[in-house]
Specification:
CATH topology: Aspartate Aminotransferase, domain 1
Shape: globular
Order of helices and strands: HHEEEEEEHEEH
Strand order of the largest sheet: 1-2-5-6-8-7
Distance between the termini: 30 Å
Number of helices: 4
Largest sheet: 6 strands, antiparallel
Structural class: alpha+beta
CATH class: Alpha Beta
Radius of gyration: 14 Å
């Protein structure tokens, strides 16, 4: 059986974020890190080479059961990917309509610019996701 490739690493989160090429995306990465650390009261941990995660829980997929971060993000070139704020296929969360300009994926949201969304709503979504994953 194949193993899950995305796992926690010892890579330095600050060094990763400082190395993000685009200045705005780099700054947004630091903002998201601070926000998620404040909400979760957990340190940021690199998962694989491009994802910053907080906490972890067992996750089952076609490869078996593995640990996966509860909430996290990746400052990708095309958009910030924010993991954990969408609950699988649920899209009827009223907070999502209040979030602002974003698109949804299974279990994550994509944001072109942090300025396009309501940070207080994002904080609530992260908090709700964190609480749900730790009950």
């Amino acid at each position: 059986m194949a193993s899950l490739k995305t796992r926690p690493t010892d890579q330095d989160v600050t060094a990763f974020l400082d190395a993000v090429e685009h200045p705005r995306r780099r700054e947004e990465g630091h903002v998201l890190r601070a926000l998620m650390e404040r909400v979760t009261e957990q340190p940021a941990v690199m998962w694989g080479s491009t994802m910053v995660g907080f906490g972890s829980s067992p996750y089952t997929n076609t490869l078996g059961t593995h640990e996966w971060f509860n909430v996290g993000f990746s400052p990708r070139k095309s958009a910030l990917t924010i993991y954990g704020i969408h609950n699988g296929y649920e899209t009827d969360n009223p907070l999502l309509t209040e979030l602002g300009q974003h698109t949804a994926g299974k279990g994550c949201g994509y944001v072109k610019r942090l300025n396009d969304i309501d940070i207080k709503v994002l904080q609530r979504l992260i908090s709700d996701a964190w609480k749900a994953s730790n009950t």
